[in-house]
Write a structure and sequence with these properties.
41% of the residues lie in helices and 22% in strands. Strands 1, 2, 3, 4, 5, 6, 7, 8 and 11 form a nine-stranded mixed beta sheet that branches. The protein has a two-stranded antiparallel sheet with strand order 9-10.
């Protein structure tokens, strides 16, 4: 049994080297890059990855499906450039592949969920809805595809899915500027997805969704236990909701105005 690792990138020079180092045990690593202007591709190639350049950006789901189509090994691990495979996770993945997906109870799985432990401004976030943050990332090749979502894509599988014990380390933001940049991009994509589904909103909706997001993260998901960073995450989450629904509001109003 063998393993392909797939990664999509754009301007990930600060991440891609350590990411690829953490999956050096794989039989092949494929990086699909959507036009980086830094040296992401050069670093990836120096680490032995196969790098494929695309001249467009169809969204996270479609781009990851492109990478998935390039994989040639028996199993595929999808990892983001800002994630790291720990030694414990690497050992567990290798055991799963060696056993062809057979788990402790003797059944065979076609895919596996992996938890992510995320770091925000130097703090490992154990609450705020950030932990354990399970994502299906390890699959038998041919057993699944990513959804076509512009953002928040997920793997849809045929067959049973199990859960690994070890976890990724996740470094989603370099700093507050990076966080706000991502919030802006994700809110635009989220508004576009809602608009295409016929969703609408008004001022009460914009306010209500923003307030609810803060309450959900800070109170219901116990973000207050993450200290000052938990408050900031809840506030930025509320701001992201405000931006998303405000952008939707202006999209729909533009239609009405002709």
């Amino acid at each position: 049994m063998s393993l392909s690792v797939i990664i999509i990138t754009k301007n990930e020079a600060h991440n891609i080297g350590e990411c690829l180092d953490s999956v050096a045990f794989a039989d092949e690593c494929i990086v699909v890059d959507s036009g980086s202007t830094d040296n992401t591709r050069e670093i990836a190639q120096s680490k032995g990855a196969r790098v494929v350049l695309t001249d467009d950006w169809p969204g996270f789901g479609p781009q990851k499906n492109r990478a998935l189509d390039l994989a040639t090994q028996d199993w595929v691990l999808s990892i983001d450039a800002d994630e790291r495979v720990t030694p414990e996770l690497a050992a567990e993945i290798q055991t799963i592949i060696r056993n062809d997906g057979v788990i402790d109870n003797g059944s065979r799985a076609n895919g596996f969920r992996i938890a992510r432990l995320s770091n925000f401004c130097g703090r490992w976030m154990r609450h705020s809805g950030w932990w354990p943050d399970y994502v299906v990332r390890l699959i038998r090749r041919g057993a699944g595809r990513f959804t076509d979502s512009l953002v928040h894509e997920s793997l849809r599988l045929d067959g049973p899915v199990s859960t690994l014990k070890a976890h990724f380390l996740h470094y989603p933001y370099q700093d507050m500027e990076g966080l706000l940049t991502k919030v802006n991009a994700y809110s635009s994509a989220g508004a576009r997805m809602m608009y295409e589904k016929g969703r609408t909103t008004g001022i009460p909706g914009i306010i209500g969704h923003s307030v609810w997001t803060f309450i959900r993260i800070y109170i219901m998901r116990r973000g207050f236990l993450d200290g000052r960073e938990g408050f900031i995450v809840a506030a930025v989450g509320a701001a992201g909701s405000f931006f998303r629904y405000s952008k939707l509001f202006f999209m729909t109003r533009q239609d009405k105005d002709g």
